[in-house]
């Protein structure tokens, strides 16, 4: 018999129990007591080294299970994307028979999929010396492949015999009742902990939300400046360094700086502060190696509780377990928080609160907190006709609402295909071009949650206060699944702030699916890039045909136009022509002659690839083969991503002039008008002079300024054809409330 307590558990009982209680007072053999044959095993799970890679990115998300006698007695937290994880977790286990070994199993956590086995080991308890701390190193093995090296697990254990006096019946009964209370508390804690572990990388548990309505207390703004004298990891005496940051479940990875020991990153990103005291940021530096595991350069930490708020701190951090320094700028600021509440608590229905929100985002407060662009309120009302996910013919659905890196959960409605949540989620909008994502999952206590459906809604397309039923889509948002979800959304924002934020770098999403090699994606991106290139090729053929006089009237007209334009050309004509093109397309649209192309890139561009992925994940031999050709895979993924970036760039330019997002097109009109007037009234040499002075003095005025291109930041907000297709599918599923009665 055994029991276990997690650290800081509700109970820490130094005894076990038998099944019956003798109330006659003649014996205490059947009541909780400290038996001389009992032992307490205190375990500290230290770390793992050189664990097996189970993800396609060459990493794993390991966690550890402890078992005795076939019963799980402890499960560690998940360390994401790390083959050398550091846990430093403690477990207290009571053991009755030392002949039962401690069984350690390591798994790779996969959200939504079967967790992958990473190896196991046994600890013979009879070999431990009593009352003496012992450091144990266990080599992980796979019973099916005993020759494979899967890394090691480092533990510290103390085995202590439990001895004590016999209790009388009254004290024994009291102890038994105390034990039963603690057992119930522990069981409830374990259930809630297991449920929350499935979303450890995504959000806080809903119970935490109920205890404190505000999910975070502030924002940590981090600027990674540079590295100094880093350790050389390559044969050429240099490295290709990059840095990983982690604060709780939030993470960020910097860009790779090739062939340098003194990299200059100049990258800025934000983390959310969930704890009142701040927390600790774990920082690790790595050397990128194509085709094999990246080399570890060093690590350091930042204790946010030691930093004052509303002040920028310049930190020079010495790398431990390595060489060199990292230079950071860290700023802690207070923030308006996101929240979750019932429908009875509605900020916008309260007239005073609504007026306060409207005043906060009024045009008069343009320069007050530029990062606070707007306010979003989402009412998740109910869903109807959901997919059956359990063998009982029902599902246990809950909702995940996401806006960039903000992610909130509803409670779970058990055994119901028509759940009612009636929850209100509020977010602060930092980018009006963000897309609200609402995903429905089925909760499974024994494994990861099952996907039931998803919708994606751009904030600029929301009609305030209108309740809509959205047809749930598949994971790629390319086709419908079963069921609808009822949402009511309100957006209030400052247009000037939103315009200014459009010209700065887009917020990076910290939790994203890692890149995978896909034949369909590779083909799709190739076709998209080919279409963009063919536009240029056809234009070149057309110009060349004018030179060849294939059509004399057309060539003559082109020749006269060429002479006229070259003789009278002024620089302001470039934005003027673009302005005329935008205006021309706008009038075509409002007149009903819409020339926007509705053709899809590839109709079946995103089929469900997870079936093939599941088969690959379950087959360890295929996984081994994938690891062997990882170098080729990385090259293919890079080509795939380059094709996507090139194709998206061309499509974004096209969609700007096609009025795909009217807000952005109007913003382009305003900018082009300003540029036209400036270029018309100000001589070009003065403009070039101002530009040159600004470029030459920028680093002198602001040494830690982050370079960016306003035009590219603007285009990053314009959706590509794939994003337009996904959004259009979502809105094709939006049907009026009165038309959804057939789903109920």
Written overview of the protein:
- Residues 20-138, 200-317, 351-472 form the C2 domain.
- This is C2 domain-containing protein.
- It comes from Felis catus (Cat).
- With 744 residues, the chain is an alpha+beta fold.
- A hairpin with a 7-residue loop joins strand 23 and strand 24.
- Helix 7 runs antiparallel to helix 11.
- The two termini are 50 Å apart.
- 28% of the residues are buried.
What structural keywords apply?
744 residues, alpha+beta, 5-stranded antiparallel beta sheet, 27 strands, 29% helix, 28% strand, globular, disordered C terminus, MCTP_C, metal-binding, transmembrane helix, C2_dom
Give the helix/strand layout:
Layout (H helix, E strand, L loop, with lengths): L2 E3 L32 E12 L12 E7 L2 E5 L10 E10 L6 E7 L7 E8 L10 E6 L12 E11 L6 H29 L8 H6 L6 E11 L12 E7 L2 E4 L10 E10 L6 E8 L7 E9 L8 E7 L6 E10 L4 E4 L8 H10 L13 E11 L12 E7 L2 E4 L10 E10 L5 E8 L7 E9 L7 E8 L6 E14 L1 H8 L16 H29 L4 H17 L4 H18 L19 H9 L1 H9 L1 H28 L4 H20 L2 H18 L8 H6 L5 H12 L1 E2 L9
Helix pairs in contact: 5-10, 7-11
């Amino acid at each position: 018999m055994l029991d276990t307590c997690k650290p800081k558990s509700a109970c820490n009982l130094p005894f076990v129990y038998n099944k019956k209680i003798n109330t006659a007072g003649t014996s205490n053999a059947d009541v909780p007591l400290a038996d001389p044959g009992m032992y307490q095993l205190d375990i500290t799970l230290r770390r793992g080294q050189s664990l097996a890679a189970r993800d396609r990115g060459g990493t794993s998300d390991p966690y550890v299970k402890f078992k005795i006698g076939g019963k799980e007695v402890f499960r560690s937290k998940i360390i994401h994307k790390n083959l050398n994880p550091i846990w430093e977790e403690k477990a207290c286990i009571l053991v009755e028979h030392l002949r039962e070994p401690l069984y350690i199993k390591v798994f790779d956590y996969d959200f939504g999929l079967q967790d992958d086995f990473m190896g196991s080991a046994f600890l013979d308890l009879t070999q431990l010396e009593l009352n003496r701390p012992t450091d144990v190193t266990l080599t992980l093995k796979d019973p099916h492949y005993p020759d494979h090296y899967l890394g090691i697990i480092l533990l510290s254990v103390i085995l202590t015999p439990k001895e004590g006096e016999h209790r009388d019946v009254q004290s024994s009964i009291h102890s038994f009742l105390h034990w039963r209370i603690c057992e119930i508390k522990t069981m409830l804690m374990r259930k809630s902990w297991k449920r929350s572990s499935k979303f450890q990388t995504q959000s806080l548990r809903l119970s935490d939300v109920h205890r404190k309505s505000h999910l975070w207390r502030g924002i940590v703004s981090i600027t990674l400046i540079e590295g100094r004298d880093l350790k050389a990891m390559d044969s050429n005496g240099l490295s290709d360094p990059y840095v990983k940051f982690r604060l709780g479940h939030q993470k960020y990875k910097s860009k790779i700086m090739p062939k340098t020991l003194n990299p200059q990153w100049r990258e800025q990103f934000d983390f959310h502060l969930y704890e009142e005291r701040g927390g600790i940021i774990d920082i690790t530096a790595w050397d990128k190696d194509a085709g094999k595991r990246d080399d570890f350069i060093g690590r350091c930490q930042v204790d946010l509780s030691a930093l004052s708020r509303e002040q920028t701190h310049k930190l020079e951090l010495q790398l431990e377990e390595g060489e060199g320094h990292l230079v950071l700028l860290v700023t802690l600021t207070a923030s308006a928080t996101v929240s979750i509440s019932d429908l009875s608590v509605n900020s916008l229905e309260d007239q005073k609160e609504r007026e306060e929100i409207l005043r906060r985002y009024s045009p008069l407060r343009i320069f007050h907190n530029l990062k606070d662009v707007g306010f979003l309120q989402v009412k998740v009302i109910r869903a109807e006709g959901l997919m059956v996910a359990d063998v009982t013919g029902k599902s246990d659905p809950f909702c995940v609402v996401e806006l960039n890196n903000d992610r909130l959960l509803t409670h779970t409605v058990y055994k119901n295909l028509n759940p009612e949540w009636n929850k209100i989620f509020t977010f602060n909008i930092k980018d009006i071009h963000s897309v609200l994502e609402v995903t429905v999952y089925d909760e499974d206590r024994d494994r990861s949650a099952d996907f039931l459906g998803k919708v994606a809604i751009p904030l600029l397309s929301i009609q305030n206060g209108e309740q809509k039923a959205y047809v749930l889509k598949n994971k790629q948002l390319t086709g419908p699944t079963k069921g609808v979800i009822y949402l009511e959304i309100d957006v209030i924002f400052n247009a000037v702030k939103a315009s200014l934020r459009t010209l700065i770098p887009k917020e990076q999403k910290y939790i994203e699916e890692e890149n995978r090699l896909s034949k369909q994606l590779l083909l799709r991106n190739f076709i998209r890039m080919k279409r963009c290139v063919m536009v240029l090729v056809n234009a070149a053929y057309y110009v060349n045909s004018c030179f060849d006089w294939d059509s004399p009237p057309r060539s003559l007209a082109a020749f006269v136009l060429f002479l006229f334009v070259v003789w009278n050309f002024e620089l302001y004509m470039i934005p003027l022509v673009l302005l005329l093109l935008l205006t021309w397309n706008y009038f075509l649209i409002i007149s009903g002659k819409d020339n926007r192309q509705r053709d899809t890139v590839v109709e079946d561009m995103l089929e469900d690839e997870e079936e093939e992925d599941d088969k690959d994940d379950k087959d360890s031999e295929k996984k081994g083969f994938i690891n062997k050709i990882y170098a080729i895979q990385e090259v293919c993924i890079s080509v795939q991503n380059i094709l996507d970036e090139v194709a998206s760039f061309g499509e974004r330019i096209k969609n700007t002039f096609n009025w795909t997002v009217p807000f952005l097109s109007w913003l382009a009109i305003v900018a082009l008008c300003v540029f036209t007037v400036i270029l018309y009234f100000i001589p070009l040499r003065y403009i070039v002079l101002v530009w040159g002075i600004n470029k030459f003095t920028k680093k002198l005025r602001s040494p830690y300024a982050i370079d960016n291109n306003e035009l590219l930041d603007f285009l990053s907000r314009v959706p590509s054809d794939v994003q337009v297709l996904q959004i259009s599918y979502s809105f094709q599923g939006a049907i009026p409330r009165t038309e959804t009665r057939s789903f109920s």
